[in-house]
Amino acid sequence: MQSKFTQKKTWQVLRLMPLLMLFCFLGSGAKAQIITISTETDPTYNGLNTFGAVNSAITFVINNTNGFPVTLKGVDCYFNPAAIGSTSTVPTLWYSTSSLGGAPTIAGPTWTSLATGPSVSFPSAGYYNVLNGLTYVIPASTQVRFALQGSSGLSYSGGGTGVPAISSFTSNGVTLLNGPQLAGGLTIGYAGAFPSPTFNPRHFTGRITVDVSSAPCSGTPNPGNTLASVPTVCPLTNFNLSLQNSTSGSGVFYQWQSSASATGPWANFGTNSSTQTLQQAAATYYRATVTCGANTGTSTPIQVLLTPPSGCYCIPPATDCTDNDMITRVIFSSLNNASTCGTGPPAGY
């Protein structure tokens, strides 16, 4: 038998359960969608360049191409203590919405200090978190230039230590622009002594963490025209459909439709996506209905024609004589021609 004390505690917990369930329900609708964009995906980023164990900086741009704002949450940086000549530094992150390219002077009023973190220790070469818990909001369709400052030096790539192969990294509508990338016709990536680094193009070597959770959609969607990747297509050949205008926010539903006539009737097909990849056996009209809550907008239909057989002869795919798909003998009635596999063009025919 439970004691009165135990029974009382159990009753108190039961009384609290509806409130706890409410908190869980409210929290479930506010889940963040966190992404990380990293230069680690390109092994040519070696982080061997540095200005030494002195107050220095490296610049880069974050471009938010989404129709909703995103939030910068954290920044990591690659450090090589052997190259820098130190094993710790105090990081500061600056930002500018006007000095997007060219040689910067990292100071007000053009530049604003966003955050200064505690001293970062880097006993060995690698990627280290330098700033976390940031809440900087990058508006929809906006570019912002950042400068990472290290009080006792930092590492970056480019210059005499090799030029990275990639200078643009994109995920979920957010792009990290580096090195020789341009903004307003001017180079983005500068590194060197703070506050006026002069070496370029230089490549920020690190990671950015971004919250790309979108706000709920609102209003009536306006998808505009239906777009096709080709005006005419051969049977059993893939082509793509898309929409002229994007619809921002969460909770958007797409229903694709096809018809033999521009006026219908329309048949549903495809997946809940703003794009579709498909094939067709006859000339067909396509459109999409885009729904936000109780509001629905319909795209202007487009017709994709069927290419006649005379325009659908196959192009031999062979490029050498090693795939067992070459033709080395042709027999037709009294014709009997044999040949060795040649180099073409086209090879093997």
Strand content: 35-45%
Model regions low in confidence, pLDDT < 50 over at least 5 residues: 4-30
Global mean pLDDT: 87
Roughly what percent helix? under 10%
- Biggest β-sheet strands, sense, barrel: 7 strands, antiparallel
- The number of helical segments is 2
Structural class: mainly beta
Gross morphology: flat
Task: Please state the oligomeric state of the protein chains shown.
Answer: single chain
Radius of gyration: 29 Å
Question: How far is it from the N-terminal to the C-terminal residue, by CA?
Answer: 90 Å
Q: What's the β-strand tally?
A: 29
SSE diagram, text form:
Elements: H1 4-28, E1 34-38, E2 49-50, E3 56-64, E4 70-79, H2 81-84, E5 88-89, E6 91-96, E7 112-116, E8 120-121, E9 126-131, E10 136-138, E11 142-150, E12 155-156, E13 168-171, E14 174-177, E15 182-183, E16 186-187, E17 191-193, E18 206-211, E19 226-228, E20 232-233, E21 239-243, E22 252-259, E23 267-269, E24 276-278, E25 284-292, E26 295-298, E27 302-306, E28 329-332, E29 335-338
Parallel strand pairs: 20-27
Antiparallel strand pairs: 1-18, 2-12, 3-11, 3-14, 3-17, 4-9, 4-10, 4-18, 5-8, 6-7, 6-11, 13-14, 15-16, 19-21, 21-24, 22-23, 22-25, 25-26, 25-27, 28-29
